Amino acid sequence: MRNIIDIITADMQKAFAAAGYDESYGQVTVSNRPDLCEYQCNGALPAAKKYKCAPIVIAKAVVEHLDPDAYSLAEAVMPGFINLKVSNHFLADYLEKMRITPAFGLEQIGTGKTVVVDYGGANAAKPLHIGHLRSAIIGEAIKRLYTYFGYNAIGDVHLGDWGLQMGLIITEMQERQPELCYFDPDYTGEYPEEAPFTMSELEEIYPCASIKKKEDPAFADKAHTATFELQQGRRGYRALWKHILNLSVTDLKKNYDNLNVHFEKWLGESDADPYIPDMIQDLKDRGFAVMSEGAIVVPVSEEGDKKEIPPCILVKSDGSSLYGTTDLATLIQRMQDFKPDKVVYVTDNRQSLHFEQVFRVAKKTGIVGENVELEHIGFGTMNGKDGKPFKTRDGGVMRLETLISDMTDFVLDRVEKSNFSEDEVRDTASKIALAALKYGDLWNQPSKNYVFDMDRFASFEGNTGPYILYTIVRIKSILGKYGEYKNLPIQEPTSSYAKDVMLSLTKFSTALENALKASSPSLICAYVYELAGFTNKFYHETKILSEENEDVKAGYIALIGLTKSVMEACIDILGFEAPDRM
Ligand code: ARG
After folding, report:
1. What residues does 404 pair with on adjacent strands?
2. I need a labelling partner for 455 at 20 to 30 A (CA). Which of 289, 350, 361, 410 fits?
3. In 3-state terms, what secondary structure has residue 187?
4. What pTM was computed for the model?
5. What is the pLDDT of residue 558?
């Protein structure tokens, strides 16, 4: 279904042509003077230069050729703008089409295309903390946005499961329980099904080993060796590693579920490992990889670089591979298994240089084809009210679990409890808490830092997730009282309040298209906030259920029914949902 702007633009272009001017001047935009008109076309101004006459002359001539049925206002104003208001009839028609078309008529530009969204970035054996929050929230929204456009969007957590933390845990375990069969190099039997530790033990083992690494060089050496041997395939270490991985993934899934974040793939750095030797050999053979101070590197600096882009190091002088090596090998795996048209990475801004290097190597060596798009969405920091990265009260790193449960408790203290079962109160509170957390984050452009403010984010008023939920819940309640409404057609607006809601609804596709183009879910937040505002205004100014004329009432109900569906589609992309009551 064509976007309303495109429909009006096409009409305007026809009018330019009919008036004897080039149709390319007919681009229409949403008005920047909503007090005067809803849409505008400024094409007569540049056209005047070409046709060497006054813009107003062109504008006046063009207006004569517009479809009279479609506009309640079409006027040429000085110096040559064309101001438009769409007719009630046109508007109702458009929204009715939107109502009955899948995805509200959003053009499915992703059909037949695949995009891999690499987000989450969790590390095995380490609990999720605040630093992982934004990647999960933004990444999930970006993935859902792609899906909504018809893409086959594959979310991959790209688990950090292959690094030194594994060697550290193995070494620490060996010090604590050297008698375990995993450490006996001569052991040839089966390894136990059951892990020799629980998740909570693991959570104690890792930080303990991590401290030892800093204080005890011999321990650090052992951990490096263990990491190396693990990667070389030492049986006992692999078996232990599998235990760590299983426990971690179960725990991580539980945490991500609480955030309503779900990955299609749980691949990790280890899955890229088998591709590394051939990749390095190939890059050497083709002359891309060169020796530099004992390391194997791929130079990536380009003419015109504003700052120095250092070479991408594939193998360090001690023989170990690096973060970039894994990311390149992962690209080989992804191209082979998923054939993506695009790969999007959602990480902290501070990894920008890393991805710049990786993308350059991938492009120049042909690891990804010319038509494959690579994008890094870098995000800023979530800060505390002091403007510094968010910390726990005692200055530690806050676990994601704690943040979510703090937020839920905070909401729980404030929600309505009478007439609700205990389960419903809990469920509603967690839905509101999630909306508060996610909307508070996504409202900001990803690249910007923001201040985490529980009070503000959880408020039912103002620009917040709970306010959006509240608007939806209010509509749900009216619809519930009305009864069956799904087949009611959209009618022409009977007030300016209704028309404002309707005009706002027409902007749905444009809002999503802009969000996709800018890789910024914040534009969806801004849209849904605008729609909620007009909806609440309409609600306050209109007696909906007590309207006596049944026809008019049905029109109101159809309108808020569509509004609810559109708002729900938006928040579903943002990754949260509305309760039935609150
Ligand atoms: N695990 C990494 C970290 O904690 C993030 C991974 C992001 N994805 C990637 N393909 N590099 O920083």
Report:
1. none
2. 350
3. coil
4. 0.94
5. 98
